[in-house]
Amino acid sequence: MSLQPALLKDEDSAPLARVTLRPGGGRAVIALSGELDLATAPLLSPVIHSLLAHGRNRITINLDDVTFLDVFALGTLVLAHRDVTRSQGSLSFTHNPVFERLLAMTGLITLLTAAG
């Protein structure tokens, strides 16, 4: 099963995301990099939906290389959480100070940090 997305921010940019699938039923890891904002956040939903369509509902979103997140990106992550939860799965995030600050400011810290 090939789920390597071609999620390019534009023709000259590095990919926004890389998907790593562990053998068997292990967690799928979506490693994001750069800025997750109004322009790039919509690229994440098709990756989540593709994983769920292939029965991969245990997902970690690696935010280690994300340098910026806006409220639109946060909304996309909340929707991803909803979709994964509806599929009886779990969604977790790696530690990222920018993400955690945004969660604290919006009051979503309980929802998304307890999601793992």
Written overview of the protein:
Helix content is 35%, strand content 26%. It is of the alpha/beta class. The chain has a single domain, classed as STAS domain (Transcription Regulator spoIIAA, 2-Layer Sandwich), CATH 3.30.750.24. Strands 1-2-3-4 form a four-stranded mixed β-sheet. Helix 1 runs parallel beside helix 2 (71-86). The chain is globular and about 35 Å long. The two termini are 24 Å apart.
Main β sheet profile: 4 strands, mixed
What form results from the Cα inertia axes?
Answer: globular
Structurally, the number of domains stands at: 1
The mean pLDDT is 81
How large, in whole angstroms, is the Cα Rg?
Answer: 13 Å
Write the CATH fold name. Answer: Transcription Regulator spoIIAA
Poorly predicted segments: 1-11
Total number of beta strands = 4
Output the strand order for the largest sheet.
Answer: 1-2-3-4
Number of helices: 4
The CA-CA distance between the termini, in Å, is 24 Å
**Structural class from helices and strands?**
alpha/beta
Helix-strand pattern:
EEHEHEHH
Give helix % range: 25-40%
CATH superfamily: STAS domain
The appropriate CATH architecture is 2-Layer Sandwich
